[in-house]
Structure formats: structure tokens, C-alpha cells
């Protein structure tokens, strides 16, 4: 059965605190990352790393302005790195066979629409973010006649405050089911206190044993080598070691190393130094 785009009213949280008002709207970086996906999607199908047919619409002029300078040239030194990041997470997604998926800080991610299930059984797919993000994203996808194969749920809540797990569970999330979690471009926007609180709840309340995650994380090396957005707040020296204290074990891979494996080496201008993609399992 194919699940057409829809958002059930009961999936939506009734309130959203906006503890930090700077986070309430779709960020320019989210538009910019969507524009970077559109650039990758526009190249020769024989060499492109993925195809996102919705990226242009989601990027808009804000995304183009974030990435391209007044001379029409790319101005962000991480375009190829973002393509590698997207590809690596796509690969982890497509190798996953769990029946429940949850994306925290989903932003303008389109995997629920552009990727296919890896099983013939129904798969519940939860995205969690602010109401304003979903208002823009879901209306744009609806206009594009986007179709998802997943049992999709949009969950509106503020992940930096207490109570957000209740909204996720109310939307149908089952904490007893092993889940594939995606945290792409998420944890670095939180403070150390918020990250610690979030992972404590995730690891003890929501993630059943056998759950897996794929996550991106910048480090102080990234912060020093790239002009990171001033909303980035968390830069652990060793991400895998930090998140290991919550029971997650696995591996961390530098984007610059992954780029070599994908035959898309990053030069100094396009390098995301010290930027990791972590794949881990809750034991």
C-alpha cells in the first residue's frame, strides 16, 4: 500500500513553547541545504549521488541567496560535503529494515517522499520539528504532489523543553519498537545542557534496545575551519565518546574520508574538516 501525503490532525501537538524564539521559523540554513541538494540533483544522473525532485521548491530564493553570491558563484565552502552527508545518510536509511523511523529536527528533509521502504510491511515514519517548519514544508510538498510510501506523521513540538516525548507518543510512536533515528544537522544547534537532556530521555524512554541512529556532528575543528552559523552551540571533541555515555556504540566517519569513498574528494575550499557522521546502536 502506498501512503499518499497527509497529516492527521491528531498527530499535531496542541502547543509549542518556542523557548528560543530564534528557532521558530524555517532557518536560512535549511533553505540553503535544500538548495545544495538541488545542485547535486541537477547534475548528470550517471554521476550524481542522489536525486531530490523537491529541493528546488523547498530551497526558494532564500536558499539560493544563502549559497550563491551576487556573481552567481557558489559562496558556501561545504556544498560537496553536504552532498556526501546526504548520500551517507541515504545509504544508512536504505540499509535499515526497522519498522519505525523517527527524524528529529527534520527541517526540510525529503527522505519520506524521495526514498522507498526497505520492507513490504508498513513502516511508521515520524518527523519532529516546529509548527512553522511543517507549515511551509508540507504545503510545498503537497503542491508538488509528493507521495510517500510510509505511514507518515508530522509531530509539532519543541525538542529543547520537557514534555516533547508525550507529543511523539501521542502521534503513535511506540517506544517498545526498535527504531531507526535520524539526527541530521540537529545536535549542534542545541546547548550542552539540552543535548544531555535530550539523549537521556531518548536513550531511557523512547529508544528500545536494538534501535539504531545516524547522526551528524560538528567538532571544534569544524568550527575553526568553516564559518559556522551563529546558532550552532555544541561542539564535542569526540562525538562518539560523548554519545557513548548514553549507551550508543558504533562508529564515526569523517565526511572528508567518506568523500574519498564516494569518489567525490573534497578540496580545501569545499572541506568540512572535523565533521562526523555517526552510526550507532543502542545495546
Query: What is Rg?
Result: 18 Å
The main β sheet shows up as: 7 strands, mixed
Give the N-terminus to C-terminus distance in angstroms: 33 Å
H-E string = EHHHEHEHEEHEHEHHEHE
Instruction: Give the % helix.
Output: 25-40%
Give the DSSP E fraction (strand runs of 2 or more residues).
15-25%
Please state the average pLDDT score.
89
Query: Which regions are unreliable across 5 or more consecutive residues at pLDDT < 50?
Result: 1-18
Number of DSSP E strands:
9
Tally of helical segments: 10
Shape: globular
Q: Order of strands in the sheet with the most strands?
A: 5-3-2-6-7-9-8
Structural class: alpha/beta
Reconstruct the topology from this structure.
Blueprint: E1 3-4, H1 28-41, H2 55-67, H3 79-94, E2 100-104, H4 111-114, E3 124-129, H5 131-143, E4 147-148, E5 151-156, H6 164-170, E6 180-183, H7 192-206, E7 212-217, H8 220-225, H9 239-244, E8 248-254, H10 255-261, E9 276-282
Helix pairs in contact: 1-2, 1-3, 3-10
Q: Could you characterize the architecture of this molecule?
A:
With 283 residues, this protein is of the alpha/beta class. Helices cover 36% and strands 16% of the residues. It has a 7-stranded mixed β-sheet. A two-stranded antiparallel ribbon has the order 1-4. Strand 6 (180-183), helix 7 (192-206) and strand 7 (212-217) form a beta-alpha-beta unit. The longest helix is centred in the N-terminal third of the chain and has 16 residues, at 79-94. The two termini are 33 Å apart. Mean pLDDT is 89; it is low at 1-18.
Summarize the structure.
The chain is α/β, with parallel strands linked by helices. It has helices at 28-41, 55-67, 79-94, 111-114, 131-143, 164-170, 192-206, 220-225, 239-244, 255-261, and strands at 3-4, 100-104, 124-129, 147-148, 151-156, 180-183, 212-217, 248-254, 276-282. It has a 7-stranded mixed β-sheet. The protein has a two-stranded antiparallel ribbon with strand order 1-4.
Amino acid at each position: 500500500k502506498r501512503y499518499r501525503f497527509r497529516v492527521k490532525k491528531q498527530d499535531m501537538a496542541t502547543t509549542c513553547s518556542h523557548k528560543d524564539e530564534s528557532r521558530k521559523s524555517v532557518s536560512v540554513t535549511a533553505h540553503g541545504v535544500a538548495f545544495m541538494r538541488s545542485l547535486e540533483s541537477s547534475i548528470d544522473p550517471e554521476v550524481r549521488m542522489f536525486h531530490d525532485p523537491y529541493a528546488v521548491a523547498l530551497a526558494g530564493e532564500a536558499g539560493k541567496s544563502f549559497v550563491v553570491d551576487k556573481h552567481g558563484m557558489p559562496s558556501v565552502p561545504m556544498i560537496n560535503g553536504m552532498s556526501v552527508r546526504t548520500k551517507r545518510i541515504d545509504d544508512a536509511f536504505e540499509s535499515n529494515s526497522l519498522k519505525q523511523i523517527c527524524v528529529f529536527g527534520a527541517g526540510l528533509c525529503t527522505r519520506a517522499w524521495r526514498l522507498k521502504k526497505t520492507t513490504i510491511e508498513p513502516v511508521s515514519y515520524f518527523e519532529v520539528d516546529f509548527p512553522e517548519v511543517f507549515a511551509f514544508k508540507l504545503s510545498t510538498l503537497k503542491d508538488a504532489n509528493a507521495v510517500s510510501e510510509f505511514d507518515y506523521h508530522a509531530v509539532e513540538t519543541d525538542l529543547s523543553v520537557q514534555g516533547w516525548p508525550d507529543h511523539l507518543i501521542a502521534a503513535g510512536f511506540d517506544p517498545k519498537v526498535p527504531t531507526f533515528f535520524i539526527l541530521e544537522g540537529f545536535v549542534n544547534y542545541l546547548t550542552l545542557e539540552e543535548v544531555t537532556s535530550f539523549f537521556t530521555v531518548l536513550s531511557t524512554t523512547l529508544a528500545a534496545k536494538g534501535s539504531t541512529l545516524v547522526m551528524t556532528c560538528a567538532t571544534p575543528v569544524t568550527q575553526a575551519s568553516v564559518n559556522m552559523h551563529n546558532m550552532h552551540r555544541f561542539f564535542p571533541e569526540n562525538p562518539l565518546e560523548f554519545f557513548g555515555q548514553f549507551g550508543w556504540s558504533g562508529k564515526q566517519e569523517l565526511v572528508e574520508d567518506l568523500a574519498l569513498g564516494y569518489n567525490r574528494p573534497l578540496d580545501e575550499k569545499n572541506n568540512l574538516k572535523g565533521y562526523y557522521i555517526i552510526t550507532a546502536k543502542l545495546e
